[in-house]
Every structure is written in C-alpha cells, then in structure tokens.
Specification:
Pfam families: DUF3237 (PF11578). InterPro entries: UPF0311. This is UPF0311 protein JJQ90_05765. This protein is mainly beta. It has one helix and ten strands; from the N terminus they run βββββββαβββ. Strands 1, 2, 3, 4, 5, 6, 7, 8, 9 and 10 form a ten-stranded antiparallel sheet that branches. A hairpin with a 5-residue loop joins strand 5 and strand 6.
Length: about 150
C-alpha cells in the first residue's frame, strides 16, 4: 500500500512573551518549572488576535534533558472571540544548548527540536473549525519569548 504524504496548512505565528521561570525543584521525574505567559499576539492567514496575559507553561525537565511542556493560555481573536489553547510538546537539544536555553540564553532554533500539538477550545461559531482538526506547532525559544508556527494537518 502506498502511503500519502502528510499535507499541512500554515495557520498563524504566535509570539508569546514569557516571564522568568519559577523552579519547583527536582523531583523523582525531573525538575518542575512554571513559565508565566505575559501576553503576545497571533497573526496569520487563519487567525489574528492577542495572547492574553495570565497563562503559563508547565514544564518537566526530565533527567535525559528533554523538556516536556504544557502551555495553557487564552487568545482573544480580532472579532472578540475567546479561544482556550492547551499546547503540549517536547523540546530538546544537545546538552550544552539545553543548558543555555534553561539559563535564558539564545540558541539558534535549528539546533533545537521543539514541536507541539496545540488543541483549541471555543464557543464561537466562526472558529469551531479549530476544535475539529489536528494541529502541529514548530517552536522557537527566545530569551523573553516563545514563537510557535501553527499548522493544520
């Protein structure tokens, strides 16, 4: 059987301002961290709006150096609709690059694997399409922001 290639459509670029991480310390599964989401914006051919302050990225830095992330935040779209986002993913790189990222230092994005699977929830009829598909995010960590390129698959 011949398999089809996975097609994707660019939805938007989210630029999310983040605060300094709060470490809960190292536990048996790794270091737990909370990264506050301060705000931002999202813009692209299918979504335009702002990232509201008040969300957070809950991270587990595993002993193998992989960061498991689960970011939860809310979008206010240009038409006023509210959209809840839960964005789970993985981020990893060479140990020296991960150490730099965890210290808040810049690392070229091509040296970091950062992929997410955003899920959306909304009551707005015009945006229910967000609840009926699967999405993939390509992430980039900057010292004070996270960029996520969102694609529908």
């Amino acid at each position: 059987m011949k398999s089809a290639a996975l097609a994707s459509e660019f939805v938007a670029l989210a630029e999310v301002a983040v605060g300094p991480p709060v470490s809960l310390g190292a536990g048996p599964l790794g270091e737990r961290r909370i990264v506050p989401i301060l705000g931002g914006h999202i813009a692209g051919p299918r979504l335009v709006g702002e990232v509201l302050p008040g969300g957070a990225d809950f991270q587990l830095i595993r002993p193998d150096g992989v960061a498991e992330i689960e970011a939860r935040y809310t979008l206010r779209l240009a038409d006023g609709a509210l959209v809840q986002v839960t964005n789970r993913g993985l981020r990893h790189a060479a140990p020296e690059d991960m150490a730099r990222l965890l210290r808040g230092e810049p690392v070229p994005p091509e040296r970091v694997y950062f992929r997410t699977a955003p899920a959306f929830e909304t009551a707005a009829p015009a945006h229910l399409w967000l609840t009926r598909g699967l999405f993939v995010g390509l992430g980039e960590r900057r010292p004070d922001a996270v960029l996520i390129r969102v694609f529908a698959v």
